[in-house]
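Predict fold of HTH luxR-type domain-containing protein; 314 aa.
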Amino acid sequence: MYIVQNGWPAANGGVQCRMILVKLSGGAVPSMSANNVSTVTLTGAVTDSDAIRIPEGRRLSSGEIERMLLEARRLVETAVDRHRNEGRLLTAMESDEGVDAAERFIESAERTVAVVLSGRNDQVTARLVARLGRAAARGIDVRVLGRFGLLENPSLLALLDKYASGVEVRLLRAPLQEMVLVDGLLSVVWSRVEGPWHEAALVRAPAVLRNQRTLFMAAWSLSAALEDHRRLTGRTRSAVARRILLALSSGRTDEVAARELGVSVRTYRRNVAEITRELGANSRFQAGARAMELGLLPLAASSPPDNGSPDDST
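Predicted 3D structure, encoded as C-alpha cells:
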C-alpha cells in the first residue's frame, strides 16, 4: 500500500497531491519470524482493483476526497475481515475488552495516539478522554477526529474541556471507523453495527495499520479544529449566510448575487465581509474553502436555495 505523499491544501479547498494510491493485499498470507509480531510481514498479490488512484498534479475537490475516504474505509474494513483469523495479527474482542485494551495502549504510548470518536457512549468516551488528556500532558502527540455531530453532544464537549484541554480535536463531515491507533504499531477498532461500541478488534497486521494511518491522516488534512466550529455564531450558521456562501462558491458577481437575494449590493458586500471575518479568512475565495471545511456548505454547491433573505438596510 502507498500512502499520501507531498500533499498540501489546494486553493479550491481540496488537497493537491503528487500521488495518492491506496492498496490492500488481496488474499495476503502472513509470514511470521520466530513468533515475533514485530517482524510479521504480509505477502501476496496486490491488484489494481484494490487501488484508489489520483493522477499526479490533480487538484481534488472536497467531495472527491470524501468519496475517496469512504472507499478507503471500505478497504480497511475488508482488510480487517481478511485477516480476522490470523491469530495474533488480528484478535476479535468484546466491546468492553476493546475499551480496556485501548486504555492500556494509550497509557503506554510513546509517541502518537490517533483516535476516532463518535461520542455515542458517554461512559466509554469518558474513560478514553481522561486517558488521552494524561497522554497529552506527558508529551504524547494526541489527535482526535470526530464528526460534526459531536457539536450537539454537550456532555462530550464538557469532558474534552475538563480532561483533555491539551488534545487537538478536529471535526469532519465524512464517516470514519471508530478506532484508537497507538504509535502506528497497534490499534483497536470497533465495528459499524448499529448502536454504541459493538464488536471490537485488536489489530497488529502491518498492512491494516498502514491503511488506518493513511486514512486517518487524509481525513485529518480535510478536517477543521473543534475550536473553529465553536467560535461560529448563529449568524454564520444561518440560512442567510448559507445562501451568501453558496453565491460566493458559485462565482456569482456581487450584483447578480445581491439581486437574487433581494438586497442592495452594499448590504450584500457588508454581509460578505462579516462572514469572511468570522470564518477567519483573508479573502472571499478562502472563505468559501473554510465554509466547506466547516460543513457550512454542501459537497455539491450549485445555486442558492430560495429560503431566507437578509434585511436590506443601507
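Residues 1-57, 301-314 have pLDDT under 50 and may be disordered.
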